Amino acid sequence: MNPADYIAGDKDAGFTFGECFKSDTADREGVDNTPPADLIPVIAATAAGVLMPLRTHFAIPFAPLSFFRSRALERLICAKAIERVREAARKAAVVRPNKATAAPLAMDAAESKYLDGKQHPKGNAVDFRIPRVSLVDAGRWFERSGLPFDQMIFEFYNPANLAAGWLHISLVDGNHNRRMILTTADGATYAGGYPATV
Ligand SMILES: [Zn+2]
Q1: Cα dist. 89→61, 95, 187 in Å?
Q2: C-alpha 73 to ligand 1 mean position (Å)
Q3: Number of domains, the chain
Q4: 16, 67: one domain
C-alpha cells in the first residue's frame, strides 16, 4: 500500500495510510515506522471504526497525532514507563538473594511483557485531537454513539486549552472491546472515567 493511498474514506473525507504511521519521533530518531503488511487490515479497521465516525460526525478534517507505532518506536516513546517497569522487576528479583543473577533476565521479561500489552504497536490504538472540539465532547459523542471501543483515554486534557492533550481510542477484534474510559494527567497514573471539565 502506498502512503498516499486512502486507508479509510476518500480524498473528500478520509485518512491516508501515510497518516497512520507518520511519526516525528521516528523520523528524528531514524526509526523505521512502516507497519508490517499483516497489520494493514487492523490499522484499516481502527481507522474505519474510530476515526471515520468522528470525521463524519464533526465534519472537521484532522490527522491522527499518533497511530501505528513499531515496537522500537513504542520503546522510545515509553522510555520512562519502561524504566519504572524494569526497576520494579529488578527489585522483585533481588529480594530473593539466590535469584539475584536473574535480575537482568527479569528486567528484560518485564519490558517485553509491558510492550506486549501496548495497543499502538498492534495497530489497535490511535491518538488524536479534532480542531476546535473539546476532547470530552469528542469522547462523549463516541461513547454515546454506541460504537465499540476497548479503551478511551483522556491524556493531558486541559479544559482551558482545546489544543492541549489528546484522546486515545483503541478498538480490538470481535467481542473483546471493554468500553473502558480512563483519564491521565501525567501519562503514568490513570483514573477511571472522564476528566473534570472545569
Ligand atoms: Zn495512545
Answers
A1: 44, 10, 20
A2: 13
A3: 2
A4: yes
